[in-house]
Amino acid sequence: MIKDSELKALVTLLEDEDEEIVTHVEQKLMEIGTGVIPLLEREWETNFNPMIQRRIEDLIHTLQFELFQERLEEWKENRSEEDLLEGLWLVATYQYPDLDLLELRQEVHQLYTEVWREFTDDLAAFDQVRIMNSVLFNKFKFRANTKNFHSPANSMINAVLESKKGNPISLCAVYLLIAQKMDVPVYGVNLPNLFILKYQSEDSEFYINAFNKGLIFSREDIDNYLDHLNIPPQELFYEPCSNLDIVLRSLRNLIVSFEKLGDYHKSDEIKIVLKLLDDQYTGFE
């Protein structure tokens, strides 16, 4: 690992007028890898040269973006099927690189505890959903963020847990995280233009719209919805999707959000990540 004194010497060269020297220094710092980020952050705080600060900011972002990609790839390969929250946390670290996963787990656990207190043994399927709806949408006031539907915050699990506002997939994700901890058989479903949930057990099968305060509906309602959009039915519109599908859809939502804001640099970066994780994604269409 690089010593502080060596880092300071390298950082000082970032203000050199020779672009070749600056490029060489940046490459050297990039080669050291993501472990140099804390040292760069400390150097940024103590260096008052605007040019050097800007170049340090660019380096930190490049390194953080590299780490962001590595972590998501590792999650996809090793933990995607058992840890949805980690995947959602990783998506949020794009905007909040210092976000603490343990703190998120504690927030979700608090919600779970409130639902658990209301549950009794042998509840029927509709009663389980009724209680979850009551706790999440009445007690905690989770709701659709219709005023700022395309805000990037709607795809950030930490922001949704704090504001209690989100888009269809983030509200469904919160619902799903609680249901999983409660052993309630609820799963995500990828509908066009809308993400929903499915309750699926040996005895019961119906759908839940978390964007509409947990409204319960049927397969026939999905048929009508697709017919209204002139979209032919496909099996994936009715059946559970994977945790990876949820994270991929969250990333797609982020692309739209950043494009709506005119932040094409960020939308292009998310497209890079999406292409890395999704074999079907064609890239910069």
Explain what the structure shows.
The chain folds into two domains: 4-78, no CATH class; 84-277, no CATH class. Helix content is 59%, strand content 9%. It has helices at 4-12, 19-32, 37-46, 50-78, 84-92, 101-118, 125-139, 157-163, 168-181, 219-228, 243-260, 264-277; strands at 143-144, 165-166, 186-191, 194-200, 205-209, 215-217. Strand 3 and strand 4 form a beta hairpin.
Topology:
Layout: H1 4-12, H2 19-32, H3 37-46, H4 50-78, H5 84-92, H6 101-118, H7 125-139, E1 143-144, H8 157-163, E2 165-166, H9 168-181, E3 186-191, E4 194-200, E5 205-209, E6 215-217, H10 219-228, H11 243-260, H12 264-277
Helix pairs in contact: 3-4, 4-5, 4-12, 5-11, 6-7, 6-9, 11-12
Mean pLDDT: 91
Q: Evaluate the radius of gyration.
A: 22 Å
Biggest sheet: strand arrangement:
3-4-5-6
Return the string of H and E elements: HHHHHHHEHEHEEEEHHH
Overall structural class, as computed from helix and strand content, comes to alpha+beta
Q: Which spans have pLDDT < 50 for at least 5 consecutive residues?
A: none
Q: Quick one: biggest sheet?
A: 4 strands, antiparallel
Give a quick rundown of the structure.
By secondary structure, this protein is an alpha+beta fold.
Features:
6 strands; two-stranded parallel sheet; about 10% strand; alpha+beta; about 280 residues; 2 domains; four-stranded antiparallel sheet; 12 helices
